[in-house]
Design a protein that fits this description.
alpha+beta, Methane Monooxygenase Hydroxylase, Chain G, domain 1, MalF N-terminal region-like, 4 domains, 5-stranded antiparallel β-sheet, elongated, MetI-like, ABC-type maltose transporter activity, transport, transmembrane helix
């Protein structure tokens, strides 16, 4: 039974792999093939019994984490963009499929049904085609005839457009006409004809040569003819990042803001959360349960709902925050059009969303601090503030350390907050790529790849790799620095 199940599952995976290969997706087909092979070996042989328990987890990590990261890095070394989406052969197919309409032969048509087949009627010239099925590529002759008694409605004729586009008609004088749109047939002249392995000839005689370094066909004047195809361009995307002023300048600005935003978010959420946790630990505080519930509410509400609510509250014309500020101080801040105010707004909202998490952690860590240490320090005459900074804080920082680093890494890539609250706006003037005052590197890369008319996936992949390296280096440096600081504080506390 076990071998039968393994055989069935493996067969399904192999069939899926073959199907993906037929769809011109060899990479995903190879992944499914590797998954089928691993499944068959591990679950089919008894010697690998122990590996069955970790195989699903390892496969998930490789497919959903390792592969996307590796593929994104690979894209960073290509020219993949909205102008270079296709393969080389598909590019040739698209270019050679283009054609120009001869206006002198263009005329309207109608479709007449005849049993399970159809005829094409050209009312201007009084020509009727032979019977055609409109199921695949067909050719038919046109002959003079009277108008058919019943013609299909235009909407019903449109449903047959795939068959009409593959139909070729020949007039009595030998002119070949094809479907030129939803309403007309005309003589079509190909714009490009393939005349060599890497050569296309334009209808006016211009020769286009394939440039496999840039992924475009190039005319004699050196102009690229879109669409292009994907090619590996090495370090060119990284060179653009560092050499182009229109890319480097906004990217540096975005990086500085991203680093400041992540650091300030960690400091503010940690400071406010720890302060509130200390207050809630005060034994003489009344209604502590009510305060805990109220302070945890921002954490209980889904973040995207809170962000959209704040977007309405900060509305410059009708938001409650501006109405209150105008009533009290006579001012109406331009939260969404002034760069500094927009950044302040993002920090305020992120602090609101993040402090409950830090407060919950701090409440747990504070309870683990021995009361004997505090009492001994108090007997020695230390004030409550000094007890906190010399006894309590050094003991809760070590367990807090990895969580603070994780918070920094999360805020460094907090795309959801920026995307829902400001969409990165207001824009930075004078840039050749989409970049805003409130953009962090994640949203900047997202806009570059998906929110731009000239979507540049390769450049976005290169920037993503740089972000990964920067976040890894900063996180490691923070971890080392904070660990050493915590060790020094613990040493002083023990003394």
């Amino acid at each position: 039974m076990r071998l039968a199940v393994v055989a069935c599952v493996t067969a399904v995976l192999l069939a899926g792999s073959f199907y993906l290969y037929q769809l011109s997706q060899p990479v995903f087909g190879a992944i499914l093939l590797a998954l089928a092979t691993g499944f068959a070996i591990i679950f089919g042989a008894k010697r690998y019994y122990g590996a069955r328990f970790i195989f699903p987890g390892v496969a998930a990590v490789l497919i959903f984490i390792a592969f996307p990261v590796a593929y994104t890095i690979y894209i960073g070394f290509t020219n993949y963009s909205s102008f270079n989406l296709l393969s080389y052969e598909r590019t040739i197919e698209v270019l050679t499929a283009r054609s120009s309409v001869d206006a002198s032969t263009e005329q309207p048509f109608a479709v007449a049904a005849e049993d399970d087949a159809y005829r094409i009627w050209l009312p201007e010239s009084g020509l009727l085609s032979d019977v055609v099925s409109l199921q695949d590529a067909q050719s038919a002759a046109l002959t003079p005839a009277n108008a058919p008694a019943v013609l299909l409605d235009r909407r019903d004729a449109i449903k047959l457009r795939s068959g009409l586009q593959a139909l070729t008609l020949t007039t009595p004088d030998g002119t070949v006409i094809q479907n030129a749109g939803l309403r007309t047939f005309a003589s079509l002249t190909p714009d490009f004809v393939r005349t060599g392995p890497d050569e296309l000839t334009k209808s006016d005689g211009t020769i286009l040569m394939a440039n496999h370094e840039t992924g475009f066909f190039v005319d004699q004047a050196g102009e690229n003819v879109p669409p292009g195809w994907r090619v590996t361009i090495g370090w060119d995307n990284f060179a653009r990042v560092f050499q182009s002023e229109g890319i480097r300048q906004p990217m540096v600005s975005v990086f500085i803001w991203t680093f400041f935003f992540a650091t300030a978010s960690v400091v503010l959420t940690f400071g406010i959360g720890l302060t509130l946790a200390v207050i809630l630990q005060w034994p003489h505080l009344r209604f502590k349960a009510l305060y805990r519930i109220l302070l945890i509410l921002p954490y209980a509400v889904p973040a995207f709902i809170s962000i959209l609510v704040f977007r309405g509250l900060f509305n410059q014309n009708f938001g409650e925050i501006n109405l209150i500020l105008e009533a009290l101080f006579g001012i109406r801040p331009n939260w969404f059009t002034d760069g500094n105010l927009a950044r302040a707004m993002v920090l305020i909202v992120n602090t609101w969303l993040g402090y409950p998490y830090m407060m919950l952690l701090a409440m747990g860590f504070l309870q683990s601090v021995p009361e004997d240490h505090k009492k001994a320090a108090a007997l020695e005459g230390a004030s409550a503030l000094r007890v906190f900074f010399t006894i309590t804080l050094p003991q809760i920082i070590p367990p807090f350390l990895p969580l603070l680093i994780a918070s920094f890494a999360f805020n460094f890539n907090n795309l959801v907050l920026v995307f829902l609250l400001t969409r990165g706006l207001p824009d930075i003037p004078g840039t050749i790529i989409p970049a805003g005052e409130t953009d962090i590197l994640a949203s900047f890369t997202y806009r570059l790849a998906f929110d731009n008319a000239g979507q540049q996936f390769g450049l976005a992949g290169a920037i993503t790799l740089l972000i990964f390296l920067v976040v890894a280096a900063i996180s490691y440096a923070n971890f080392v620095a904070m660990r050493r600081a915590a060790q020094r504080r613990s040493g002083r506390a023990n003394l």
